Amino acid sequence: MARLSVCVEMLWSHLPFEERIQRAAKAGVQAIEFWDYSKEESGAIAAATRAAGVQVAAFVCEPGFALTGPTPVAEHVTGVRRAAAVGRELGCATLIVTAGNVVAGETSEATRRRVLRKLTAMAVAAAEENVTLVLEPLNPFIDHPGYWLTEMAQAADLVEEVGIEHLMILYDIYHQQLTEGKIIVNLRRYAPLIGHIHVAATPGRTNLVGGDLDYRAIFGAIDQVGYTGYVGLELRPSGTPEEAVAEALSLLP
Fold this sequence. Notes:
Oligomer: single chain
CATH topology: TIM Barrel
CATH architecture: Alpha-Beta Barrel
Number of domains: 1
Helix content: 40-55%
Mean pLDDT: 97
CATH superfamily: Divalent-metal-dependent TIM barrel enzymes
Largest sheet: 8 strands, parallel, barrel
Strand content: 15-25%
Low-confidence stretches: none
């Protein structure tokens, strides 16, 4: 069965970071996740998660949104190693990788070759560090205008070409509903390549109940494909965060 985590960047965002972790635990989830580790004090996060009895499901590998750009390969490899060290402190082995934007005046294939070189070197480092990178397609229409990696097939092609099991896909169902739909079809098609999942309703990136998507059916399909990792609530609550978490928990099989 999939396990819920909460992105504390978006729930209880008005509270101090450690208090968000406490609130997540009290709401009944097993794990939390967050974005840029360099903005937080990892020792404090480790202490807070231990005290609350929750895990860290994932955080972003830095530099973020840089695969498409000129950042040297070596900088990305160093980023993996630094994030892996933080991950060991936090008990987390899943690192989120964001691609970056379309490069003006450059063909998509030229960009792809650069991204592939970086991902290959990063995946080798991830294997050595025993962490898993999860590459995230995002929607370019609302949240990330100009983002280069938008569809599951595009991400799967990169992951399969790298061919190292320490590189997988982050399937963000909110983003993919906006980009291409086919949520359960793509879940089943790409299940062996999916290392992490994010969820939120469309429209609005809010609570799972009441939007366009049938999350009870989606959670059932997640179980059916054998996914046992974390499903992260990366959403903006329409009411209280506690209500949003309770609604999500009620949809699990």
